[in-house]
Amino acid sequence: MSSFKQFQQEKVRQIELALNNHLPGSHIEPKRLHDAMRYSTLNGGKRIRAMLVYATGHVLELPSSILDSVACSIELIHAYSLIHDDLPSMDDDNLRRGKPSCHKAFDEATAILAGDALLTLAFNALAKADCSAAQKVNCIQLLSQASGSRGMVGGQAIDLANEGQAVSIADIENMHLHKTGALICACITLVVGLKFQPTDAQYIRLKHYAECVGLAFQVQDDILDETSSTEALGKTQGKDKQAEKSTYPALLGLKASKQLTEDLYIDAIEQLSSFDEHADYLRDIAQFSISRLA
Question: Phi, psi (5° rounding) for residue 53?
Fold first, then answer.
């Protein structure tokens, strides 16, 4: 087994345990709401965001107690976003990670409330982090911006507004840098911000790395929506085309889109050139982001 595969399996177990501890138990009232929260958060997934947190922490030699809180906060935000993304008023998808979406497994109102609850629980996780008050405030500020109207939520709004419209490559890049890239970038900046200032060279390089990986991850998502299957993806294949969404393959074609992922990967790796072998997991994650099949 490769070193990265071992790292991946270890960190998936670590984040699953940490999330299980943060989430309210199913025996606690309101039980149906807590069931929905656990169903949507603990139902698998690549945990790429948590891995980025842990891999960055490995570079900076930060303790797991801090990294668990940061990874949980971001995974909880991600879980909430997927619940709302699947709603009939959004992307209207009945499948998520190979299982019925939250609003299908429960009901639409419960799904909305589960998403709301996971969003607020994310900041509770940061408030309990094993770090200084100033570090907590910085993390909360960064995550709220990355997940709000100037980040992920804003990107979703742009995505919905773009449906059926003729848009440019610059428009698509702007949308994805917000919708997907902002939260992925936060996986890095929340951790690096525990040790460095935004003006420090290490912070700048790792943030640039994160921006490249975030965009490459989304371009690969666009490619897989056209080339993969519902079974492999765990969600309905071809939804982007059906909804007339603007995607990289739609504007550039598959060949040019694949080349773009390679270019972004090269740029990401270049940002790690000044770091030693402790950054190898970050290098592996960049490769994984563009080579994954689901």
Answer: -60, -50
The terminus-to-terminus CA distance of the chain in angstroms comes to: 20
Query: pLDDT tens across 86-140, in order?
Result: 999 998 999 998 899 999 999 999 999 999 999 999 999 999 999 999 999 999 9
Closest CA to 172 of 258, 248, 265, 263: 248
Q: What is the pTM of this model?
A: 0.94
Concatenate the DSSP letters of all residues of 120-180 into one string: HHHHHHHHT-SS-HHHHHHHHHHHHHHHSTTTHHHHHHHHHHHTTS---HHHHHHHHIIII
Distance separating alpha carbons of residues 77 and 137, to the nearest angstrom = 17
Handedness of CA 121, 161, 188, 101 (dihedral sign): positive
When computed from its CA atoms, the radius of gyration of the chain, rounded to whole angstroms, is 18
Q: What torsion do the CA atoms of 115, 117, 119, 123 make, to the nearest 10 degrees?
A: -170
- Number of structural domains the chain divides into: 1
Domain extent for 278: 3-291
What angle do the packed helices 182-192 and 48-60 form, to 10 degrees?
A: 20
Query: For the chain, how long is the longest CA-to-CA vector?
Result: 52
CATH assignment at residue 247:
1.10.600.10
* Rounded Cα gap, residues 15 and 134, in angstroms: 24
